[in-house]
Amino acid sequence: MEVLVTGRHCEVSDRFRSHVAEKLSRLEKHDHRIMRVDVEVERERNPRQHDRAVRVELTAFSRGPVIRAEAAAADKMGALDLAVDKMAAQMRRAANRRVRSRQARGAAGQPGLAGLVGPAAGDEEERLDLEHQVGPLTVTGEGPLVVREKTHRAGPMTLDQALYEMELVGHDFYLFVDKESERPSVVYRRRGYDYGVISLDLGGDV
Fold it and tell me: Of 15, 40, 61, 154, which residue has the fewest beta carbons closer than 10 angstroms?
């Protein structure tokens, strides 16, 4: 497994690089298909964020979906440990979900998650505060203030694949283009172990 370590606003020593390679090698027991892991170490310039002074982001490339995890702590070692633990947990959840999906297909003859629906009627609407916190910044007004932006390449996929990807990245939602309807959609985690799906109808009247 190849490990590439880069630093932003900080220097990365050879000793730390060796420690990272040793630490990441333990992930192979959860996913033996990993070919490369990119490690980005970034130091926070705001002195008031001393307890989250260093952020470590991991991106694992394998013959399967890309897996990402990130964490922040007071130092590089602590942030690395937290990020690796998150990635290992995501790999375990994804592996368990693959097993449950295969069992459901075998029992019912169809994907076990094919009956997902959107939010249940009567769910309370989220309250929009006029003043809220975005990281170290206080945003006043309707907002939101965009403090980070990312773009990822992706192709159309099934709902089952989107759920699998969501478990791998460890988020509570996942944006994708539905392969069957060709609509931009979001699958998200609800209370307990339920999921919901929201889709956009680009051809409908506003």
Answer: 15
